[in-house]
Every structure is written in C-alpha cells, then in structure tokens.
Amino acid sequence: MMQVTTNAHFQSDLGLDSLDTVEIVMALEEEFGFEIPDNEADKINSISLAVDFIASHPQAK
C-alpha cells in the first residue's frame, strides 16, 4: 500500500502523469477560488509545494 506524505512528489512518488498534475492544479483553483498562473502551476509538483502555494496566496478562501 502506498503511503501519501506531505513530501510526496506527484510523478515519482505517486505515479501521476502531467495530465494528472494539471487536473490537481485545476481542482486547487476551484476549491480555493483563484487562478494559478501557468508559470506557478508548473512548479507545483508535490503535495508540500501545493500546500505552501495555497497557504501563501492572499486570495485563498
């Protein structure tokens, strides 16, 4: 069984592909109510980076 941790990388640890990563970013945008620019979205490749980005964004609900 795979254990998901905050340090889990989307591709190497969780086996997600680039389309899965795009879908995660889209889900984050919908959930937290703001658009993530493509240049920032490209950097979000792990759970911890996603959490850090959302936590530091002033428009996050």
UniProtKB/TrEMBL annotation:
<dbReference type="InterPro" id="IPR036736">
    <property type="entry name" value="ACP-like_sf"/>
</dbReference>
<protein>
    <recommendedName>
        <fullName>Acyl carrier protein</fullName>
    </recommendedName>
</protein>
<keyword id="KW-0443">Lipid metabolism</keyword>
<keyword id="KW-0444">Lipid biosynthesis</keyword>
<dbReference type="GO" id="GO:0000036">
    <property type="term" value="F:acyl carrier activity"/>
</dbReference>
<keyword id="KW-0249">Electron transport</keyword>
<comment type="similarity">
    <text>Belongs to the acyl carrier protein (ACP) family.</text>
</comment>
<keyword id="KW-0597">Phosphoprotein</keyword>
<dbReference type="InterPro" id="IPR003231">
    <property type="entry name" value="ACP"/>
</dbReference>
<keyword id="KW-0813">Transport</keyword>
<comment type="pathway">
    <text>Lipid metabolism; fatty acid biosynthesis.</text>
</comment>
<keyword id="KW-0276">Fatty acid metabolism</keyword>
<comment type="subunit">
    <text>Complex I is composed of at least 49 different subunits.</text>
</comment>
<dbReference type="InterPro" id="IPR006162">
    <property type="entry name" value="Ppantetheine_attach_site"/>
</dbReference>
<keyword id="KW-0275">Fatty acid biosynthesis</keyword>
<dbReference type="GO" id="GO:0000035">
    <property type="term" value="F:acyl binding"/>
</dbReference>
<keyword id="KW-0596">Phosphopantetheine</keyword>
<dbReference type="InterPro" id="IPR009081">
    <property type="entry name" value="PP-bd_ACP"/>
</dbReference>
<dbReference type="Pfam" id="PF00550">
    <property type="entry name" value="PP-binding"/>
</dbReference>
<keyword id="KW-0679">Respiratory chain</keyword>
<feature type="domain" description="Carrier">
    <location>
        <begin position="1"/>
        <end position="58"/>
    </location>
</feature>
<comment type="function">
    <text>Carrier of the growing fatty acid chain in fatty acid biosynthesis. May be involved in the synthesis of short and medium chain fatty acids. Accessory and non-catalytic subunit of the mitochondrial membrane respiratory chain NADH dehydrogenase (Complex I), which functions in the transfer of electrons from NADH to the respiratory chain.</text>
</comment>
<dbReference type="GO" id="GO:0005739">
    <property type="term" value="C:mitochondrion"/>
</dbReference>
